[in-house]
Every structure is written in structure tokens, then in C-alpha cells.
Amino acid sequence: MSQVAGTSWNIALLQTDIMTGEPQRNWEIMVRWMEEAVAASVKPDVIVLPEMWNTGYALSQIDQLADIDGSQTREWISAFAKQHDIHIVAGSIAENRAGKVFNTMIIFNRSGEEVGAYSKIHLFRLMEEEKYLTPGEAFLSFELDEMKAGASICYDIRFPEQARTLSLLGAKILFVAAEWPHPRLHHWRTLLMARAIENQMYVVACNRVGNTVSDSFFGHSMIIDPWGEIIAEGSEREEIVTARIDLTLVDHVRNKIQVFEDRRPELYGVGFGRVAKVYP
Ligand SMILES: O=C(O)CCC(=O)C(=O)O
After folding, report:
1. Which of helix, strand or coil describes residue 202?
2. Any idea which GO molecular function terms this record carries (predicted)?
3. Could you report the per-residue pLDDT of 192-249, keeping only the tens digit for each?
4. Is the CATH number of domain 8-267 3.60.110.10?
5. Separation of alpha carbons 253 and 136, rounded Å
6. pLDDT digits (tens, 9 = 90+) for 93-102
7. Are 30 and 14 spatial neighbours (Cβ–Cβ below 8 Å)?
């Protein structure tokens, strides 16, 4: 049974494998995982899916495989959220909008209403995303149970400006969908912890597992509290990673160490900061 809306949530991260280039099969697999998550003895308030779970990194065929306007995904996920009375941060999907393909996270509330959509703004050149995908142009802050949250996709977490901007807009929790591969596990864990500590917010990150011809994805989905403590972490296999989070902890941490009051934005940013001395 859900606790008081907006203060305490049970989270379930669906740390699944993804079949490259098989959207129908991926939907069938994902719906089984979602059904397993909602049937658990502790029913989740929020379930989170990984990045590009409809197609995987089938980039050379992505314009044919991407969901047109995300309409099929929207119909399916909205119906599931409403039927099961849960919020769904639907990872991200390849979405074809007027012939351009975006890597888009879509979020639905318990009533099945879409409360936000965010297209990845930082495309990852190491996987040639910029050759096949179009970047989004805006951050996304959204609300679930009147609690402000922010959206982030994989490579985005290397850019602290995004999470900082979202927390300045009021976000108390950052949802991250990822397909983050070996050998950069150390980066994944460190960056997620840093985003939680510096912004004094929950970071809830779902990463896929499994292999493609070129990459091996390590899972290690994580739920990190605003002190930077890891309260749940996945293995390298398919599983549902769960934890209960108390969102009132965010205000407690922000009152204890007043990072947001102590910021000096007038000194930040190249061209804005005053450099006292330059050596040599
Ligand atoms: O930044 C990284 O090391 C991984 C990023 C990534 O795999 C992605 O954005 O898809």
C-alpha cells in the first residue's frame, strides 16, 4: 500500500536486457517485468525503465524502427500506469518526430496522464549517437504527487549543469535512464553519487544489462539518497532493484548544509568569474 502521497515512495528500477532492433519483442519483455514489479509484496509507487528500451542501439536502422511520435509507447505505458495506479518513468525510447529521431524519456502519473517528455540533449559521440539522433533542446522538470523531479539520460550525467539547473528549479529527485557500458563503471557510480551530493537530491538511475556486438552493459542501477549514500544497487544481471525513499530527507539535508544559500553564481562561468591572479 502506498504511503502519504509525495513524501515517501517505493521505487522499482527495471534493470533488463534489451533486444537490439526488436521493438515488439522488447515491449513484450518489458510488460512482463512491469507486471512482476506491480505484483511484488511491496507495490512500487514509481517504476523506472532503462534508456532506448524499445530499439536498443540499432542506430543504423533507427529511422525505420523508432516509434512514430512515440504514440504506441504512450498508449501502452499510459494504459498500464492507469490500470495499476503507479507512476512510470518510462526510461527512454527512440521516437520519430517528423522524420527526426530523438532519444526521449516520457513520464506518466498514476492516472495515466503524461506529465513530461524529455529528449536527450547531450548525444554520446563514442557511440555515434550524433550521426543518427537529433538532440533535444530543453531540460525537463516535472511533478509526480506534487513532488518536483528532473529528467536525465545516460551521458547527461557527465554535465553537472543539468542536474544543478533542475535542482534550482525545485527538483528533489533526478531520474536517470541509461545504457552505460563497461569499462566505465567507476565513472557511472562516481558521477551519480556526485550529482546526489552536490545537489542534495535523490538520484534514481536505471541502467540496462546484456551485450551487443560492441558493448557489454553492467547494470548497477542505483538509488542514492541526498547524503550521497547508496541505498540500493543492482548486480550485473537482470533484476528489479527496489528501495523506499523518504523525500522529506531532501529538505533536511539542504537545511543542514546550506549549499544553495552559499552559492556565488555571480562568480561562476567563463567570462563571468573574477580571476584574482593568473600565473605565470
Ligand atoms: O558517458 C559514458 O561513458 C556512457 C554514455 C552512454 O553510454 C550514453 O550516453 O549512451
Report:
1. strand
2. hydrolase activity
3. 999 999 999 999 999 999 999 999 999 999 999 999 999 999 999 999 999 999 999 9
4. yes
5. 32
6. 999 999 999 9
7. yes
